[in-house]
Design brief:
Oligomer: single chain
Order of helices and strands: EHEHEHEEHEEHH
Number of strands: 7
Largest sheet: 7 strands, mixed
Radius of gyration: 16 Å
Shape: globular
Structural class: alpha/beta
Distance between the termini: 29 Å
């Protein structure tokens, strides 16, 4: 069972998903702490309501000081909109979800609605999400899993976002379960540098 720190920057929809799946027994994890780089966001209020320790910390150093007080073996970036530098002991244990099929529509500037607008503008017939380990560059760490959704020509960026988020709700917990089953190093070792 993975011991999670959840980092977020907004409403906490992914936190909701994790909390529900942990309660249902389909996500093999325990949330130890929730941290937001943005003060007073809904995600922190939800974390407190669920009974998780919840903190605001605006810098990597402040986040890492908080993490030092908790038994964490995996950090989940759950709508965390900043490049994050973890403590050395967790350097390879930061999992992120990206709302596109990496290597398409990723990297600096490709987050949230910007991704779905770019997918629409390109005329893509599929999109999806990618769960990957994070490193010091945006969206370049080893991929854990991807899920695909079919698109219609008439889909708006908002409709694309809704379809992709629906598969994100399945993919992120599935990826955490895969990491729990195979171990972190399995995914770093299967890719070529």
């Amino acid at each position: 069972m993975r011991k999670l720190a959840v980092l977020l920057s907004g409403s906490g929809r992914t936190l909701d998903n994790f909390h529900e799946r942990i309660g249902a027994g389909s996500l093999r994890a325990e949330i130890q702490v929730v941290i937001s780089n943005v003060a007073d966001v809904l995600g922190l209020a939800k974390a407190k309501r669920y009974g998780y320790p919840a903190f605001h910390a605006s810098s990597d150093a402040a986040i890492n000081r908080i993490l030092a007080d908790y038994d964490v073996d995996l950090i989940a970036l759950a709508g965390y909109l900043k490049l994050y530098g973890p403590p050395e002991a967790l350097r390879r244990a930061v999992l992120n979800i990206h709302p596109a099929l990496i290597p398409s529509f990723c990297g600096a500037g490709f987050y949230g609605h910007h991704v779905h607008e770019a997918v629409k503008a390109r005329g893509c017939t599929v999109s999806g999400c990618t769960v990957h380990f994070a490193n010091e560059s945006y969206d370049e760490g080893p991929i854990v899993l991807q899920r695909c959704v079919a698109l219609e020509d008439s889909d708006t960026p908002d409709e694309i976002a809704a379809r992709v988020f629906a598969v994100e709700c399945e993919a992120f917990p599935a990826a955490i379960n895969l990491v729990d089953a195979k171990g972190v190093e399995y995914f770093w070792n299967r890719v070529k540098p």
